[in-house]
Amino acid sequence: MALEEYKRKRRFEETPEPPPKVATKAGNRFVVQMHDATRLHYDFRLEMEGVLKSWAVPKGPSLDPADKRLAMHVEDHPVSYFDFEGNIPENNYGAGTVIVWDVGTWQPLSPVAVNGKYPPGTEAEAAAMLAKGDLKFRLNGERLKGDFALVKMRGRRPGSKGNEWLMIKKHDDQVVEGYDIAAIDTSVLSGRTLDQVAGDAGSAEWKSRPTGRGRLKAAWLADAVARVEKKKQVKTTEDTEDAEKNRKRKNTSAKRAPQAETAAPARKEIKSSVSSVPSVVLASVPTKRPMPATIHPMLAESVEKPFDGAEWLFEIKWDGYRAIAFIADGKVRLVSRNQNDLTPRYPELKDMAKFIHAKTAILDGEVVALDEEGKASFSLMQQRTGFRPGGKRAVGNSDVPVLYYAFDLLYLDGYDWRRVPLEQRKRKLASLLVAGDVLRYSDHYEERGKALFEMAQKTGLEGIVAKKRASFYEERRSREWLKIKIRKRVECVVGGYTVPEGSRAHFGSLVLGLYDKKGGLIHVGQVGSGFDQKSLGEISKVLKKIETKKNPFFGDVEALRKVSWVKPELVAEIEYAEWTDGTSAGSGPKLRAPVFLGLRDDKDPKECVLEEARV
């Protein structure tokens, strides 16, 4: 069914959106809807094959050919969605305000040019172009006019959904150089702005929207957290009922049993592998001192299984790049865990200071790129930053928007908060932030780590982080913070590459290693999957520059083909199934079914430690 995905994502008893129904009458309309959801974006829809073929365009369509807009291909919508305008209630998919920004008709263009121009095409040609990933068309709308193309991005990165397209304006007499879509913020149907529709009780299914604090959640997250809270309530009820039964049972036993002449032997205390006794979080005050110029992020130890605990706070593990944010005099400076300045890479985050009620502050958090559902996507983050091996990077795709999830407060207006318990720091942080397009507060969930982990598994997240609510901020790795990953990932050092075979070009696989406690680089396997032709070529150029005749590994290297050695300067992000034992004496454990995800320059190769990776 063409609208099955549309139906699956929505609860029609709660949302005013139209039900899924495929139209039987052919049409050739298009609509652009301005959608203030997790972040402001534009939904571009073409009436085709009885549905609205849809793309989420973060920065909106442009009449300037110089603007190649990222367009995320999303699920088909029913034709009745064409004039939908109103409010999608909180905790529903796409929650937020929608207005109709433009409407009109569209016409497919033939994929074959005649005298340098593309003549009108047919519906069959349009369907073929869409399937091929290169759809050319002409718009005749109130605001958008002229020839356009939607082109599917071929350089798909490992882990991506493969739904990244580009929307490009063709050169014609409808071109507007320097086009600014933000200058037009009203509906072509009602003449109202998003704010007017959001605050209008007459809009479809109007409900007030949260303002102020930065706890704005995407629909998938709010929905999932609601399930966690429901489990927590059920568990609390069960615990209360069990406690009452035990109390009655003890009272009955006490009446029947004779008084003991000697005390019963003390039972041996059983301690949890993490903790068994909730700690009391004592109120503490920050210390007055000058603002630090450097902060080394507090890092979490890895544990294998999720757990519950009253003395722990549980957070979502965001799949992005860790960054310390220094705010002073209305300006923001972002610094990586390796003390690299990230500020120029993310110019839109310079506006973060506007959403923080502070003159000076230091925040800890994660820079993330969100997909169309509001989930952090490492694949999109790689596309945004560009290919960056060895500290160098290609031109990234600035059309991929990023935002900053803040999860800790370290300094505020002349006071150091690092020796204040985490729970107090987070409470203060939440009171300072205002939800915006560039900044979010990373909320926490109490006690129920297992339920949050289960939610993270079902929604395809990287994992969760457990933090002791009484913990201070330590600029080192600590067991006060624990990370529990869902998809098994590891950062490995690249120590060489093998020769290609068959039709493959450049190299066969990357030879991977991790450092042991003595500082020796131990071979942990090869990765040959996860590459495309573009990444093979780009990585090959970097490998050639750092080639060496010296083997960087300590011990045996179990490679089936000839290895060319490189200096151990590159860190690769690897996804894998499990660890296996080495096949020869002196050989270390090996990664089973590894897949290459990307190269990272925010990690020092010396941080890639075997003992930590195998936890």
Structure description:
- With 615 residues, the chain is of the alpha+beta class.
- The chain folds into 3 domains: 206 residues, no CATH class; 199 residues, 2-Layer Sandwich (D-amino Acid Aminotransferase, Chain A, domain 1), CATH 3.30.470; 125 residues, OB fold (Dihydrolipoamide Acetyltransferase, E2P), CATH 2.40.50.
- It contains 9 helices and 28 strands.
- An 8-stranded antiparallel barrel has the order 1-2-3-4-9-8-7-6. Strands 10, 13, 14, 15, 16, 17 and 18 form a 7-stranded mixed β-sheet that branches. A 5-stranded mixed β-sheet has the order 11-21-20-12-19.
- About 7% of the residues have low confidence.
By DSSP (H or I, 4+ residues per run), the number of helices equals 9
Q: Bin the strand percentage.
A: 25-35%
Largest sheet: 8 strands, antiparallel, barrel
First-last Cα distance: 44 Å
- The helix content is 10-25%
Q: Mean pLDDT score, rounded?
A: 83
Overall strand count: 28
Question: Could you say how many structural domains there are in total?
Answer: 3
The class by helix and strand makeup works out as: alpha+beta
Low-pLDDT residue intervals, each spanning 5 or more residues: 204-213, 253-281, 387-392
Envelope shape: globular
State Rg.
Answer: 28 Å
- Tell me the strand order in the biggest sheet: 1-2-3-4-9-8-7-6
